Amino acid sequence: MKVYRFVTCPIQVNTYLAFDETKKGFIVDPGGFSEQLVQKAREEDVSVEYIILTHGHGDHIGGVDDFKREFPQAKVIAYEGEKELLQNPELNASREVLRKPVTVDADIYVKDGQDMTIGSTPFTFVHTPGHTKGGMCIITDGYVFSGDTLFRASIGRTDFYGGSFDEIKRSIHEKLFTLPGNTVVLPGHMSETTIEYEKEHNPFV
């Protein structure tokens, strides 16, 4: 799988374009629109099949509508427990971050542990509450898109609506630290890391 990172949104969100040899791909966490991402998808002849949201905060959903205009076939995926946050701009902080209310209604709401194949690549969606009630991570062979659950030597904030420090620690230990140590962690902010590095160096968990 090829993965490209584009920094979007006023507060520097990692938005990912990923695809495999079938040229079927997806976007993760479009905090804002990126013309560079669109150009890369065109250059690589990628069919963007899905827009996947790790959680519903405004800085991770602000670019959904713009990308849907570029890739109208793309289906939006979110965890079933995140509908409240996605659809309520008073809770998802979109007004504060983007200076406008943003709501999203996903086309597909997935369950904890649900599997999906995109192109020829299998994925598993895992519920990782703590940053938000319905936050999730996306796991595939060798990679985990961790959203705002796990960062390099840090974790997502837990002082927002639906956050819980105990829950985010439990999510990381039970859902992420069980992955192979060489799994590459692709977070919602900052640089990539690995599960092994976080087990040894992350002071929060």
What's the arrangement of secondary structure elements?
Layout: E1 2-8, E2 13-19, E3 24-28, H1 35-43, E4 47-52, H2 58-61, H3 64-70, E5 75-79, H4 83-86, H5 94-98, E6 108-110, E7 114-118, E8 121-127, E9 136-140, E10 143-147, E11 150-151, E12 154-155, H6 165-176, E13 184-187, E14 193-194, H7 195-201
Parallel strand pairs: 3-4, 4-5, 5-6, 10-13
Antiparallel strand pairs: 1-2, 2-3, 7-8, 8-9, 9-10, 11-12, 13-14
Structure write-up:
This protein has helices at 35-43, 58-61, 64-70, 83-86, 94-98, 165-176, 195-201, and strands at residues 2-8, 13-19, 24-28, 47-52, 75-79, 108-110, 114-118, 121-127, 136-140, 143-147, 150-151, 154-155, 184-187, 193-194. A hairpin with a 4-residue loop joins strand 1 (2-8) and strand 2 (13-19). The protein has seven helices and 14 strands. The model has no long low-confidence stretch (mean pLDDT 97).
